[in-house]
Amino acid sequence: MKAGVIGAGAWGTALAQLLAGDGQDVLLWALEPEVVDAINEAQQNPLYLPGIPLSPAIRATGFMADLAACDLLLVVSPAQHLRKVLAQAPAGVPLLLCSKGIEAGTGLLMSEVAQEAQPASPIAVLSGPTFAHEVARGLPTAITLACEDKALGQRLAARIARPSFRPYLSDDVIGAEIGGAVKNVLAIACGVAEGAGLGLNARAALISRGFAEMTRFGLARGARAETLGGLSGLGDLVLTCSSTNSRNFSLGKGLGEGGSAAELLSNRRTVAEGAHTAPVLRDAARAAGVEMPVAEAVCALLTEAASLGQVIDALLARPLRPE
Ligand SMILES: NC(=O)c1ccc[n+]([C@@H]2O[C@H](COP(=O)([O-])OP(=O)(O)OC[C@H]3O[C@@H](n4cnc5c(N)ncnc54)[C@H](O)[C@@H]3O)[C@@H](O)[C@H]2O)c1
Ligand SMILES: O=P(O)(O)OC[C@H](O)CO
């Protein structure tokens, strides 16, 4: 049995390291040839996960066809690249989707994209409060593993669980995905509050009212409330809204400090999924008749449709209403 990981960014590399922790072979597909070479020759990924010595049980490849040797594929490419990357992957192998976002143009969640790109492959989702560098260092972590097929979910959980990495099972795939996608947008808002010096009361308000938005949107899409209140929803929201270790929070901080969205986005190699999800989420929420004022505010800042002052004034001027 050999697991494959598609995407050698920070999270794909950390997951490969987790799986290789007990000596099992892991094959890691990387887009960049220099990442393949650095992993195979120096057991490092300085581009995306610097400072972590990687297990020699991880082999990297640039050839997707090599993944035909795997009986499980963890899919960790950024959400907007998932469809084209999956189209090249071997068919019929269980896919554990680890990316967080909503596809632009279609409004589809990653499981829905995967069903279209690989209709013969069983699908599960892995999502929760998990900074890659902490998992790679073996720090204690809990995560949601969602799969409609309970027997497959249990097999996958047993396969990826480690003494300090605890998957919690769910059959609410949509709920797990919505939490992971929406929290990235809300983390940008919390970063803005940090960068603009709005204080910790404002951050707590954004987390709570943002969670209300996540819940409204999730319920409208068929998610269950307990999933949204669990690791993949509230848990990840709290993590990502609390630290500049989050790329989404950091992007928001730059916006709050007065940076231009275009410049902040063009100056980065790593992915801030919330920037791509925000406009899709706004459109999906409007279409479903779900109010998401914080997500709307993030969108306005990212598209430079409104200034920071205008966005703050608009949020504070909303009608008073029951909680
Ligand atoms: N980093 C984390 O702590 C973490 C934790 C949980 C989930 N995630 C999710 O994992 C996914 C990947 O994030 P990451 O942090 O590993 O990425 P990253 O920001 O570290 O690296 C960027 C990734 O994008 C890939 N990429 C760039 N252009 C591409 C293209 N044209 N086609 C295909 N791939 C391309 C790169 O090869 C690289 O793997 C995201 O959806 C993210 O939300 C990340
Ligand atoms: O760095 P971010 O903002 O992409 O967050 C990483 C993970 O999603 C945290 O769970």
Automatic annotation (TrEMBL):
Q: In which pathway does it act?
A: Membrane lipid metabolism; glycerophospholipid metabolism
User: What EC number is given for this enzyme?
Assistant: 1.1.1.94
Q: From the UniProt record, list the coiled-coil ranges.
A: none
Q: Where does sn-glycerol 3-phosphate bind?
A: K100, G128, T130, K183, D236, S246, R247, N248
List the catalysed reactions: sn-glycerol 3-phosphate + NADP(+) = dihydroxyacetone phosphate + NADPH + H(+); sn-glycerol 3-phosphate + NAD(+) = dihydroxyacetone phosphate + NADH + H(+)
Q: Per its UniProt entry, which superkingdom is the organism in?
A: Bacteria
**Keyword Nucleus among record annotations:** no
Q: Which Gene3D superfamilies match?
A: N-(1-d-carboxylethyl)-l-norvaline Dehydrogenase, domain 2 (1.10.1040.10), NAD(P)-binding Rossmann-like Domain (3.40.50.720)
Instruction: List each copy of the Glycerol-3-phosphate dehydrogenase NAD-dependent C-terminal domain by range.
Output: 172-312
Q: Where do the catalytic residues lie?
A: K183 (proton acceptor)
Q: Which residues form the Glycerol-3-phosphate dehydrogenase NAD-dependent N-terminal domain?
A: 3-151
Task: Quote the function comment for this protein.
Answer: Catalyzes the reduction of the glycolytic intermediate dihydroxyacetone phosphate (DHAP) to sn-glycerol 3-phosphate (G3P), the key precursor for phospholipid synthesis.
Protein family according to the UniProt entry: Belongs to the NAD-dependent glycerol-3-phosphate dehydrogenase family.
Under which name does UniProt file this protein? Glycerol-3-phosphate dehydrogenase [NAD(P)+]
